[in-house]
Structure to design on (353 residues):
C-alpha cells in the first residue's frame, strides 16, 4: 500500500492486480459508471480551439470500430462492468449514419443505461425525433456564442441558424433537459457568456461553461489565454444576481449556480472548471475511442487496444479483463497543473468529449 495524494485527502493506494469482478474501479477507489464513446473523429465544423482549418488526418474506415464491434463492447461495459450511463460523442456523432442503430442497441441492454449525446447540433433538426425514438434520453449541444459573426469566426462555418434549429428540435422531441456546452473565446468570451446565459434562460436550456483545455490538434493552448471559472463568474455577476446551487454536486463535472430575478429563481447554469478547479478525485468516467481504444482519462498518455482483441477473436471475459486493467492503472489526476504536464498526442476530436 502506497500513500498517494489526489490534491484532496491522501488515500492509500492498493498496487495489486485489478479485481476480476464487481465495479470498474481504480486503485484510488473511484468507480467508473459513466462511459464516453467516440463514434467518429470526423466533424463538419472546424472550431479554432479544437481543429485546424484544414490538413487534419482522419481515421480510415477499417481503423474505426464497426457497428457490431461497438455494440459488443457496449454490452460488455454495461452487463459486465457496471456502466450505467453512456454518452456518445465525436468528432461530430451526427455525421455517422448508423447512430440511431447504435443508440437503439444500447437502449435494449439490460440493465438499460442512461443514453446521452454530445453534438454540435448542425444536423440535429432533422434527426432529433428519430434519436429520441431510438432511445436517446438527453442531449448536450455545443454553442459558444449566439452572435452569428462570432460563431462563424470560431467554427469557421456559417451554421448558427442550423444549431439554433437543432436546439429547438431537441426540446420539441422531449430530450429534456437540453443542455448547452460553451467554450468561450479568449477575446469575445466574456461578452458571449452574458448573451448565452440570457438566451438559455429565455429558452429553458441548461447552460454549461467549459474551461478550454489543452486538447487542440495544433497544441497551441496557452494557460494565460484561457478564461477561468472566476473570470466567467465575474462577468456574469455584473449582469445577473447569482448564488451557488445548494444541491450536492457528487461526481458531476459542473459546479451549479442559481440566477435570481427578484425573489424567484430564473434558472441555473454550470461551470466545468477542469483546469483551474480540477475535480479528478470524483471522476467516474471511462472512455472508448472511435478506433476501439480504452482511455482511463481524457489526458491519458496510454491506451488499451480493445479493437485488436476483438478482431483476434477474444471472448467477452478477455475484453472485460483488459478494460478492468486499463482503469485500474488510472492516475490520481490529469496533471494539467503539474510542471511536467505533456498534452496528449490525440486531439479532442479523436478522443471524444
Amino acid at each position: 500500500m502506497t500513500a498517494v495524494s489526489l490534491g484532496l485527502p491522501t488515500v492509500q493506494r492498493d498496487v495489486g492486480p485489478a479485481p476480476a469482478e464487481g465495479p470498474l474501479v481504480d486503485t484510488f477507489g473511484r468507480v467508473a459508471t459513466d462511459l464516453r464513446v467516440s463514434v467518429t473523429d470526423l466533424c463538419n465544423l472546424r472550431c479554432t480551439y479544437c481543429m485546424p482549418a484544414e490538413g487534419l488526418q482522419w481515421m480510415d474506415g477499417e481503423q474505426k470500430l464497426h457497428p457490431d464491434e461497438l455494440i459488443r463492447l457496449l454490452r460488455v461495459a454495461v452487463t459486465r462492468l457496471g456502466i450505467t450511463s453512456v454518452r456518445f460523442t465525436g468528432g461530430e456523432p451526427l455525421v455517422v449514419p448508423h447512430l440511431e442503430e447504435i443508440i437503439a442497441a444500447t437502449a435494449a441492454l439490460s440493465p438499460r443505461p442512461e443514453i446521452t449525446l454530445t453534438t454540435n447540433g448542425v444536423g440535429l433538426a432533422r434527426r432529433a425525433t428519430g434519436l429520441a425514438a431510438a432511445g436517446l434520453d438527453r442531449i448536450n449541444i455545443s454553442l459558444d456564442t449566439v452572435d452569428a459573426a462570432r460563431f462563424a469566426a470560431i467554427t469557421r462555418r456559417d451554421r448558427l441558424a442550423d444549431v439554433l434549429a437543432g436546439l429547438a428540435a431537441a426540446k420539441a422531441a422531449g430530450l429534456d433537459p437540453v443542455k448547452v456546452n460553451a467554450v468561450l473565446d479568449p477575446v469575445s468570451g466574456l461578452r458571449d457568456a452574458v448573451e448565452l446565459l440570457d438566451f438559455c434562460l429565455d429558452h429553458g436550456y441548461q447552460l454549461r461553461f467549459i474551461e478550454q483545455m489543452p486538447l487542440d490538434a495544433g497544441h497551441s493552448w496557452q494557460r494565460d489565454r484561457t478564461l477561468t471559472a472566476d473570470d466567467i463568474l465575474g462577468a456574469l455577476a455584473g449582469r445577473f444576481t447569482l448564488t451557488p446551487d445548494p444541491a450536492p454536486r457528487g461526481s458531476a463535472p459542473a459546479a451549479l449556480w442559481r440566477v435570481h430575478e427578484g425573489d424567484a429563481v430564473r434558472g441555473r447554469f454550470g461551470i466545468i472548471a477542469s483546469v483551474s478547479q480540477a475535480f479528478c478525485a470524483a471522476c467516474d468516467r471511462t472512455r472508448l475511442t472511435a478506433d476501439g481504444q480504452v482511455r482511463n482519462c481524457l489526458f491519458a498518455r496510454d491506451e488499451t487496444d480493445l479493437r485488436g482483441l476483438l478482431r483476434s477473436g477474444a471472448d467477452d471475459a478477455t475484453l472485460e479483463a483488459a478494460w478492468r486493467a486499463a482503469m485500474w492503472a488510472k492516475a490520481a489526476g490529469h496533471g494539467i497543473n503539474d510542471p511536467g504536464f505533456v498534452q496528449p498526442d490525440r486531439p479532442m476530436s479523436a478522443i471524444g468529449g
Notes: The two ends are 33 Å apart (CA to CA).
